[in-house]
Amino acid sequence: MDLSNLKPAKGSVKNRKRIGRGQGSGFGGTSTRGHKGAGQRSGTSKKLGFEGGQMPLARRLPKFGFNNINRKEYSAINLETLQNLADKFKLAAIDFQALVDHGLVGKNDKVKILAKGELKAKLEVKAHAFSAAAIAAIEAAGGSAEKY
Q1: Do residues 122 and 141 lie in contact, with contact meaning Cβ atoms separated by under 8 Å?
Q2: Is 127 helix (H, G, I), strand (E, B) or coil?
Q3: CA–CA gap between residue 50 and residue 56 (Å, rounded)
Q4: Whole-Å CA distances, 71 to 54, 61, 67, 74, 113
Q5: Helices 132-140 and 79-89 meet at what angle, rounded to 10?
Q6: CA distance 132 to 95
Q7: By the 8 A CB rule, do 125 and 78 touch?
Q8: What H or E segment, with its residue span, contains residue 140?
Q9: Region class of 23: left (phi > 0), else alpha (psi between -120 and 50), else beta
C-alpha cells in the first residue's frame, strides 16, 4: 500500500453538489440561489400558502358562518336502537359502557338518547343527555332515565 492507491472508505464520501466553491465548479457566483430577493438571502422560509406576494387564496375567498367553541357534540342514539340492543343481548340496563362495548359510540363521545322508535322493554338507561320525549317514553315503558 502506498499513497497512490489510497481512497476513502466506502460510504464516507457523499456525492453531492458543492455550491459556492468558485466559477469553475459550475455552482459559483449565486450558488444556485438566483439573483436578488428574499430567496437569495440566508435564513429565509416561505409561509404555508405563500403565493409570491399575490393575495393568497385563503384571503381571497369569502368567509361566512360561525363556529361556537363551546358547542357540545352528542352522538344520537334512538329508542329503537336501545330496544334492538335489549332484545339481542338480553339487557335490563344500558349505560355508556354498554354502548361502547357494542360499538355504537366511541369511548370519548357523549351520548344523547332521542325518542325515535318504540320502546317496549323496561330499561334502566344512563346517558349524558336525553330528549324530553325520550324520558317520557322510557318511563312509560316502566324504566328509568338517569343523566351522568
Answers
A1: yes
A2: strand
A3: 6
A4: 36, 26, 8, 10, 18
A5: 40
A6: 18
A7: no
A8: helix 132-140
A9: alpha
Cell of 14: 457523499
110 is written with which cell numbers? 357523549
φ, ψ dihedrals at 130, nearest 5°: -135, 150
The secondary structure element, H or E, covering residue 124 is: strand 124-127
**Residue entry with cell 315503558:** 141
Question: How open is the CA angle 28-31-33, to the nearest 5 degrees?
Answer: 150
CA–CA separation, 12 and 89 (whole Å): 66
The string of pLDDT tens digits covering residues 40-62 is 988 888 889 999 889 999 999 99
60 by DSSP, 3-state: which? helix
Instruction: Provide the CB-side half-sphere exposure for 46 (13 A, CA).
Output: 11
Amino acid identity at 33: R
**What single-letter amino acid sits at 79?**
L
Percent of the chain exceeding pLDDT 90 equals: 82
